[in-house]
Amino acid sequence: MTTRRPFTLAIMAGTLLAAGLAGAAVAQTAPKTDPKAETGKPAAAPGAAVKPEDQVLARVDGAPITQKDLDIAAEDLGERLPAMAEAQKRDYVLSYVIDLRIGAKAALDAKVDAEPDFARRVAYFRDKVLLDDYLAREVKKAMTPEAARKLYDDTVANLKPEQEVRARHILVETEEEAKKVHARLKGGEDFAKVAGEVSKDPGSGKEGGDLGYFTRDRMVPEFAEAAFKLEPGQLSEPVKSQFGWHVIRLEDKRVKPLPTFEEVKDQVENYLARKTQQDLILALRAKAKIERLDKAEDKAPDAKPAEPKKP
């Protein structure tokens, strides 16, 4: 009869950093086989311990592919990675990186990098990866346990107490049917048994008509008004709504309990991350000299990104 909504703390109404901030990596040419040429440092001495991320897992034309290369590729693939066991996933990503290296070399041989727009695309993806990494670093700094707890405490302190009720109902198509149901219940028949027999609500009917706890705004007005007038144990007269005719029994009334920090921790952290990102971009905009040549001077200035909703 109604859709239940989970408690949310701070859902963003809009954000400057919409889908464009998912990390994307530009395909690079194979790394040089001489570590000294790449880093300016001599190669590790024979027998020296190799860090797990530096472990060589494959070679393509002599160029190594390390665990770190796989980690970067897996991060880039993200949700595009098929659901599979870890060993299979590792093999999948390694094959992907091998194909990437082979394909990149073929592209260089075909002088794809000489195409007019190639350098611009590389520059774009370089800027994108730089921004992604910068934002990730700054978000990590801001995401302290203390900051998350403070946001939760401030939010809870500003929440107003809200009443909710727990009720059962039986839904039928006509007023006549509802009156018959009402008479059966008044006669002492078990509510859950009658609901299982005649209720047209496919969800609650199987649960003895139980709707659980709900606030007034969760139900259609006619139903909510009737339910909230009752006291625990009381039965309503037949009530008409857009869904049909209801007979309601109130089970309980209470003040809606506040969610614990652990229950909304992910939402709190998500809000902090998005707010940090937005604040950083707005601060950078304020410092930069930006000229928008695509708009006439007499038009309104650029609109600011929507502020995240306060939790």
From TrEMBL:
InterPro entries: PPIase_dom_sf (IPR046357), PPIase_PpiC (IPR000297), PPIase_PpiC_CS (IPR023058), PrsA_foldase (IPR050245), Trigger_fact/SurA_dom_sf (IPR027304). The keyword Isomerase applies. Keywords: Isomerase, Rotamase, Signal. Its EC number is 5.2.1.8. PROSITE patterns: PPIC_PPIASE_1, PPIC_PPIASE_2. One of its GO terms (molecular function) is peptidyl-prolyl cis-trans isomerase activity. Gene3D superfamilies: 3.10.50.40. This is Parvulin-like PPIase. It comes from Chelatococcus albus.
